[in-house]
Amino acid sequence: MDAAVLFGSSGIRGLVGKEMTPELALSVGAAVGSRNDDLVIGRDPRVSGPMLVAAFAAGAMSVGAEVCDAGMVSTPTLARGAKGYDAGVVITASHNPAEYNGIKLWNPDGLAFSEEQQEEVEAAMNRGATRSDWRFSGQLRQRSDLTEHHMESILSSVGAADLTVAVDCGCGATSHITPTLLRRMGCRVIALNAHPDGHFPGRDPEPLEENLALLMQTVKATGADLGIAHDGDGDRMVAVDDRGRYAGGDRLLPLFAKVHARRAIVVPVDSSMVLDDLLPGVAVHRTRVGDVYVGQELKRLGADFGGEPSGTWIFPKESLCPDGPYAAAYLVALIKSRGRRFSEMLDNIPEYPILREAYRFVADQRLAVKEALDRAFAGMDAEVTRVDGWRVAFPDGWFVVRLSGTEPKVRITAEARGRARAQELLEKGRALVHAAVNTAK
Fold this sequence. Notes:
Number of strands: 20
Number of helices: 14
Largest sheet: 6 strands, mixed
Helix content: 25-40%
Strand content: 15-25%
């Protein structure tokens, strides 16, 4: 993988053995270790995780850095644990399928590495950071207490609740934290796919509605108060209400914002205009898609809350890293404190039709696709903003076309106050994308 295009919006990510190799992890480790003396590293349960941890650690130690291996932990657990180190590292591909893996880097305050920091890592890789004197090799140590510290911090923040909760961990890293955390809150927990397995045999790691049929059925069959689902590394959390209905990021974002926001929130460009209608007097700041951009803006503005429709939630008083286990506990405590059914709380939140599609292209055509889209939007008779991709707004709706930061895909999102208009706007975006992808071939 070329260092010039190494980092996407969620760190480094690629197919194991193709883009993501031990050689790459070794090189990144040496580059990060040359700039940070003391690192903590963790991983999700992917089969390739131990191999890449070993390679990254070897690279970092080769230039004199000390490395602490925290084992298999959720990404937010590791990000919180980075507080006592110069930097944190997670070997994960988050919601991607089992054949993918990646590297994500964290600052001690729980904020992911910025673009400037990523560029510094790439520059160090290009220089080939090495140290030949064997006497200055770094050492490897282990610790296994980060998950316990994470749970204790959450419990001290959210308090007790005695709801019945079905939890689908997707065989991911939250298998060792969310079910136990909710039980310690006082909940009755029905655990699904709660055994870590890097093949993800229970379901696809991405917690989309089409992947959560078992969770929705379980909530209805058991009379649970709600269901919780995570992705592979635990930075995402979505839910199912007591009627078995999927409550993804588009539904949870306004619910959390309404409760938590006082002055300002930060969301990406593909977030619903329900937020603007629902939160009079609250500034809604829209940024690029990606939790690092939401986190950076939260820190800069001192805003109350940030989140994304993908299911990542940042509560800055807790951490600047999206924290799926904390969000799960917070939601359970919120439902308990309100004394109402989760479905009733959701039904009181306005909902506008949001439609999403994605179109895959050949990875090496990315630049050609971008240039074709630039030309297409330059010729539009409408106001186009470029915070992230191309966003076209109308009085009654909007659509966004953007290149994914983690996959060779073009994503289209459209929203309006009526479904027919949302479909019309989606089709406008689709036509532009089809033309651009075909031009790039």
